[in-house]
Design goal:
Elements: H1 2-37, H2 47-85, E1 92-95, E2 99-101, E3 106-110, E4 118-124, E5 130-136, E6 141-145, E7 158-168, E8 171-177, E9 179-190, E10 193-198, E11 203-205, E12 211-213
Antiparallel strand pairs: 1-9, 1-12, 2-7, 3-6, 3-9, 4-5, 4-7, 7-8, 9-10, 10-11
Helix pairs in contact: 1-2
């Protein structure tokens, strides 16, 4: 349905432009004829001036046709892009974004700083308050986050922001963001590019996705 609407809109726009070109060309010929009739017989207009005017109008006409072709091509590329992205829906994308926790384990991609000898996963709720801290491996790699608070109790369902604090001799030397996997629920195409909607309503630009995988 969207493809049909885009095609119809493009056709209408092209038709109106052709009508405008035809109308303008007729007006141009009338003006040129009037100009020839009213020129000074003792000082007639040079024929090269007419050629220049015709060439100018022809150039404008060709530019408008080129714009029509570019508009049609852009519309087709947009539809093609959405059809390709349709295959992404339902898969799990890895990105640096807030994590949706509903009780199921979430796969994280940790990247602690090599300058530290200890790494701590820090969990903040939607209000920015720290609700949990847990020690994690100091090496980069996948990590299953169970979503528990400091007492080991499950966190309430919601969005959480995760970071990794790397420390050396008890002093924090670096704080790094955490990438996580989440299911893609929707793909939207807009003026700013394609946006993917993840679980929990998290919006991520398609160019920010680092990896894709099949759920399970």
């Amino acid at each position: 349905m969207e493809t049909s609407s885009v095609s119809s809109a493009t056709t209408i726009g092209t038709t109106s432009r052709k009508a405008l070109i035809s109308s303008d060309f007729n007006m141009f010929l009338k003006l040129m004829t009037t100009q020839m009739k009213n020129q000074d017989p003792l000082n007639p207009i040079d024929s090269s001036d007419y050629a220049t005017q015709l060439a100018t109008f022809s150039g404008v006409e060709q530019q408008m046709k080129s714009n029509d072709l570019l508009t049609a091509l852009s519309s087709q590329m947009s539809v093609l892009g959405m059809s390709q992205l349709a295959a992404w829906v339902g898969q799990e994308a890895r990105a640096e974004a807030p994590v949706w926790m509903d009780g199921d384990p979430v796969t994280l991609a940790l990247s602690p700083s090599s300058a530290g000898d200890k790494a701590t996963l820090v969990t903040r709720n939607a209000k920015g308050a720290v609700v949990a801290r847990e020690e994690v491996p100091t090496t980069s790699g996948p990590y299953q986050w169970l979503g528990a608070d400091a007492s080991g109790n499950p966190l309430p369902e919601g969005l959480y922001t995760l970071t990794v604090e790397s420390s050396l001799d008890g002093e924090v030397v670096a704080t790094t963001p955490v990438e996580s996997y989440a299911r893609i629920m929707e793909a939207r195409n807009g003026t700013g590019g394609t946006t993917l909607i993840l679980e929990g309503g998290v919006e991520v630009s398609a160019d920010k996705i680092k990896a894709l995988r099949v759920p399970g």
